[in-house]
Hints:
This protein is of the alpha/beta class and 412 residues long. It has 2 domains: 39-246, P-loop containing nucleotide triphosphate hydrolases (Rossmann fold), CATH 3.40.50.300; 250-408, 2-Layer Sandwich (Ribosomal Protein S5, domain 2). It has 11 helices and 19 strands. The strands form 5 sheets. Strands 5-4-6-7-3-8-9-10-11 form a 9-stranded mixed beta sheet, sandwiched between helices. Helix 8 links the parallel strand 14 (293-296) and strand 15 (321-327). Helix 8 crosses helix 9. The longest helix has 18 residues, at 159-176. The protein is elongated, with a radius of gyration of 27 Å.
Amino acid sequence: MGFCPQCRIEEALVETRDRPGGLTPEPVALTKIGDGIDLRRLTGIGELDRVLGGGLVAGSTILIGGEPGVGKSTLLLQVAGALAANGGKVLIGTAEESAQQLGMRAERLGVRHEDVLVLAEDDLDLILAAAENVRPDLLVIDSIQTVRLSSAEGAAGGPTQVREGAARLLRFAKEQQVATVLVGHVTKDGLIAGPKLVEHMVDVVLSLEGDPDHGLRALRSLKNRFGATHVVGMFDMRGEGLAEVKDPSRVFLAGWQHNVAGTVVFPAVEGRRSILVEVQALAVISTLPQPRRSVRGVEPSRVHQMLAVLNRHAEMRTDNLDIYVNVVGGWRIEEPASDLAVAVALASSITGEPLGSTAAWGEVGLAGEIRPVPFDLRRREEVERVGIKRLITASKDGNRDLATALLGLGLR
């Protein structure tokens, strides 16, 4: 332009790039950092502390998701009470409930402490302003889909609002060294709603799952920058809140009837814990042109694979049968080690021969071979602990293929 339009100085405009404060950031040697980074604070709930890897890390951001009514808010309110009882301070910012509603739940759960503060507000700027004044040890946002930022476009729960709100909370947690928990809604597919970027941004992603018919709840660690992933904590939903389950294997096997055909125990491994679950199978003559396949708790594709293997290598016809497979207690199995348990349960139901007190684990290939799976010793110790003596694995007396294993069980 040749001059400044404000002060009218006749000099050309020059583009400059300023840094905040005019200072250039200095990198720090890795050897000089690390002390005090992993300072943890126990929540007072053992199962949650184990899933988190030893407690809350100051400045961390945790995202917890789950179906409506599964107990997310209940669990966090109990955590708030336990922290406050141990000298901590908690601020709960809720946009889903009024302060009176939250107070009624706290009364039922027995959470009554002056250091548990509640702010029923959907404006995230106001919640963060209150948090700066209070300086809590834990900040809970219930939920990230219902709070809003005035500076972001769109309605609360929209992709932009969720992304910008999570980024603002992440920045606050790091700057103020406040552990922050975000409650997230889930879609009908069971995934946390909102941009996937939010799960990448946060430090820890937890999923609270459960079967409403049984009251059992599983808290899974899907991502954890401060500990192991795929660790599971078990809870039992009761009238007074979520109670820790110290021995989930005995809970899952409480009603096990091993003298009935089509049932076998599978030792699932979640993180460092082995949990015994009951795998049930039912095969009945079908009256439908297309036989029914109903699967719950395991991947349907693996069940279809086991049916094909039984048909080809064990000469068990399944194309005229309705097949039902279920994992008792609402537990979800994702590891291939469950192949042998599913195949043995199916063969037992097809032949009508009970297996008795039996546990099975191993991956079954398309050629009918049984392959070893990781954590064999851990699974074996848990099975023997509850008193199950009959074990069917890849390394058990030459059980290298499914046909041989079924023959040894009297199922052929």
